[in-house]
Amino acid sequence: MTTYLALHDRRLEGGVPNRPRLGIINTNETVGLHSAFMQIHGFARWGKIHTLFILCHGYAGENTRAQVCMDAGGMGLELGKEDVLHTNVSQWTTIKNKVENIVVYACGAGDTQRGNEGTEADGKYLMGALAIHTNATVYAADKIQWYNTYRGLKDGRFDFGDWEGQLWAFPSNGSSPVPVQGAPVEFSDIMSGVAA
Predict the structure, then answer these.
(1) In total, how many domains does the chain have?
(2) Is the pLDDT of residue 151 over 60?
(3) What region does 106 belong to: left with phi over 0, alpha with psi -120 to 50, or beta?
(4) Confidence grade of residue 160 (pLDDT, cut at 50, 70, 90)
């Protein structure tokens, strides 16, 4: 039985080695998210997935209202052919009730700079919408994230280390996000084999 899923966009350099109870779905700029959704349905046929890890780049690096480059984000996720944006996040309703938690390892995914509220750079809104459309609690941080890869394995293995910035939990009921110390399960827990 699959308890955890890694949805990895291959533009994020690194690899996801096999682990017990971990399903792996790869995507890139030529693979639409519909394919990933169908695979998620397949993994969830024996029960709800505890945690979906999204491993991808986040669109980050500027405050569009202030017209400056900075450690900012919230403009979406580079995931699959169509990305995850304010204009298409509703597509995730396809996997509603299939996943309990979504942990997003991407730069600035949960960031909303002052003045960007209600714009295409409102990451808190985007992650909140993802939570509502999937009926899952979404975890995402508000800063640029750094990671390493272990080169001894094919394509390297991700090591995300500690969260940069504040990690937020976005409830599926649409209420305000709350700051948290960590996700219910971290990707490093899966890689090291300590996750139950």
Answers:
(1) 1
(2) no
(3) beta
(4) confident
